Amino acid sequence: MISGMNHVAISTGDFERSLGFYRDLMGMELVGEGPFAGELYDNILGLKNATGRAAMLRLGNAQLELFEFTNPIPKESDPSRPVCDHGITHICFDVTNIEEEYERLKAAGVLFHCPPQDAGFAKATYGRDPDGNVFELLEVASPKTQGL
Predict the structure, then answer these.
(1) Which among 127, 92, 93 is positioned nearest to 110, based on CA atoms?
(2) Which parts of the chain are beta strand (E)?
(3) d(CA 72, CA 147)
(4) What pLDDT shows up at residue 86?
(5) Within its chain, how far is the Cα of 6 from the centroid?
């Protein structure tokens, strides 16, 4: 029986940059990091001779895993990939003051689709991490409402 969700993983072309973004800028706690290689990883990942680095980060009850592959060499992705394309469209962060977080991240060079928008039950905006992955900042007006 599935009892919950453990983490989401992102593959990056620049491990240190992505680690710094999620740990230092987004405030996630680094739980562990290190290299990966060998038959165990090949089997799990469905790849041959997979090598690289991985890190697990935590924020509240959510975890994010970062991968940087040195083998096989990954294909470049489109850092402007629209959220309507198939695949994971975004990860969402709960915030308590969306305008303040938006301004803090924008001042640090984070690109956003728009300033925070007020939907009545919540305020939200989408931004992009250094690899172009979309994240959402969400400030819920009432604890009884859910994310967008």
Answers:
(1) 127
(2) 8-11, 29-37, 51-59, 62-71, 91-94, 111-112, 117-118, 122-128, 134-140
(3) 36
(4) 78
(5) 14
Low-confidence ranges of the chain (pLDDT < 70): 2, 143-148
**Structure tokens belonging to residue 19:** 């680690």
> Which value, to the nearest 10 degrees, does the dihedral of the CA atoms of residues 22, 135, 53, 51 take?
-170
d(CA 120, CA 122): 5
Q: Which residue has the tokens 């305008």?
A: 99
Do residues 68 and 15 make contact, with C-beta atoms less than 8 angstroms apart? yes
Rounded CA separation 139/19 (Å): 24
Encoded tokens for 95: 């915030």
Residue of 11, 16, 20 lying closest to 110 (CA atoms)? 20
Cα separation of 2 and 23, whole Å? 29
What is the C-alpha separation between 144 and 93, in angstroms, rounded?
A: 17
Q: Collapsing DSSP states into helix, strand and coil, what is residue 121?
A: coil
Nearest to 50 by CA among 11, 88, 22: 11
Q: Rg (Cα) of the chain, in Å, rounded?
A: 17
Backbone angles phi, psi at 113, to 5 degrees: -70, -35
